[in-house]
Amino acid sequence: MTVASISGSVVLRRALRRQRRRVVLGIVLLCAHQATEALVPVAIGVIIDRAVATGDVRALLLSLAGLAALFTALAFAYRTGARLAYAAVEHEAHTTRVEIARSALDPRGHRSGLRDGELLSVTASDAELSALVVRVAGLTAAALTAIVVAAVALLVVDVPLGLGVLVGVPLLIFALQRMAPLLTRRSTSQQEALAATTALAVDLVTGLRVLRGIGAQDHAARRYAGASRHALDVTLRAATTKGLHLGLTTMVNGLFLASVAGVAGWLALQGRLTIGELVAVVGLAQFIAEPVQTLGYCVQLFAMARASAARVARVLGATPVLATGDAGPPEPGPSRLALDAVSHAGLDNVSLHVSAGEILGVLAYDPSEAEALVALLAGRVPRADYRGTLYVDGVPVEDLHIDAVRAVVLVEQHDVALFEGTLRANLSAGAHVDDTVLRAAVRAAAADDVLAAHPHGFDRRLTERGANLSGGQRQRIGLARALVADPPVLVLHNPTTAVDAVTEALLAEGLAAVRAAGNRGTVLITTSPALLHLTHRVAVIDQGRVVAEGPHERLLASDTRYREEILR
């Protein structure tokens, strides 16, 4: 199945297929439960006619034993069948959540058009709701079984009465099904509104410090209140539609039950039904109300599942931002990373290269041009959006698998992303790394104070996004994490903007020593004199072009613009 072929209906069918074992066993047991429950009023009617009315004690005792066995069977069938049905829903929801997470974390990116908060909503809510199709399958099959068994029993008692049920129930189901499209539309609107509200909440919480700093927290609160009010209105409209559907189902059920019971009573008065048959017919008529109600409920569940499945498919079916090749890691070449006449955004015909063991500095007078270069090296720019060629070990990146590219090139972003968990987990990124390696990286990044400031050391807990660290501490921990990874080419973008001059000098010295010891290539995109000082050469970008290139000291002495830029 190709990514483009994923749709909401495909998500629903795949759920049933993946959970077919539990679904089939659950359907068998739930159908058995409904069939045996439908036989309960029939059994009571038989007992009345053949044991109670005749005064046959032996027949009464045998009948009661049979009735007890019937209840035992229906109780066991429901308990086991319901457990299988719920297990199928939860297993499918878990599988779908994992798929959504895998798609969202795809290093090639995705074109779903959803914000982080919306992805969170799809993962947390829509995955669960789309899996309800598994439950709908079991409940629908069980309800239909109950109606068929009850209709057959009524046919045995009285043919016209049974035919009336067989004809009337499908008509009721068809009438109730007419509201399904409206329920789907309202459920879709509800999920979209809730997802948008969640996305806004994530954005506001992420930028809370900035909002407080500029005094915009009240405006943000009003904006969220407006989004929440819209979500409430949409939810109430969906609830109104569901309530109307449920009310109609209940009303139609009551009218149908009254009609069947009335006809049965009239037949009993005419002498065409015995007392036991009348009890059985009234019991069956009352029983049929339950599966009809269940079918109405299934219409609502399916509408919600269908709406959520469409949103799940939007994530799973999103095409990758980057189209990559299949080639594995290439053999290391003399030039580990190179740009050949690359043009993108503000960059114009830029050519750069970095070799093993070399530290290349890049000074862009326009910060947006530095951002464009970082985006290119980080692999965030689709091939169609830039001209020229980007090489990794002499092979164009579009020919390499993205894992092969990232096995060579690691870009540490200016905005360091730390995660909730221990300091050790953040530094090792989930890999098993010896403490000596971690300590060496922390020392090289001049982050010893972060480690020494807490009694738990590497087991110190970091809050979400590393909020319990200062900006400078987050930067240095991010750099230490990059050094632990030890990539053949490390690209750093302004890694010292939040540290003081003394710490910056220590960091520059440690960085140079670690990268030189491993014969690793390094690209420093920065305006920091301390960092540019440790480079082998610096490429200067002005108005999108490389206008100068050479050792830092020579550029500092000969280029007035360069000197003014780094010394201001």
Number of strands: 12
**CA-to-CA gap between the ends?**
58 Å
Major β-sheet, in short? 6 strands, mixed
Name the average pLDDT: 84
SS-based class = alpha/beta
Principal-axis shape:
elongated
How much is the radius of gyration in Å? Answer: 35 Å
Share of helix, binned: 55-70%
Please mark out the parts with pLDDT under 50 across 5 or more consecutive residues, or reply none. Answer: none
Q: What share of residues are in beta strands?
A: 5-15%
- Counted by DSSP, the helix tally is 20
Instruction: Order the strands across the largest sheet as they lie in space.
Output: 6-9-10-3-11-12
Overall description:
The chain is an alpha/beta fold and 568 residues long. It is built from 20 helices and twelve strands. It has helices at residues 8-18, 20-52, 57-104, 116-130, 132-157, 159-177, 180-206, 208-214, 217-269, 275-316, 367-377, 402-408, 423-428, 435-444, 448-452, 471-485, 501-517, 529-533, 552-558, 560-567; strands spanning 335-344, 347-355, 359-364, 387-392, 395-396, 409-412, 421-422, 461-462, 489-493, 521-525, 537-542, 545-550. A six-stranded mixed beta sheet has the order 6-9-10-3-11-12. The chain has a four-stranded antiparallel beta sheet with strand order 2-1-4-5, with helices on one face. A two-stranded antiparallel sheet has the order 7-8. Strand 4 and strand 5 form a beta hairpin. Helix 2 (20-52) runs antiparallel to helix 10 and helix 5 packs antiparallel against helix 6. The chain is elongated, with a radius of gyration of 35 Å. The model has no long low-confidence stretch (mean pLDDT 84).
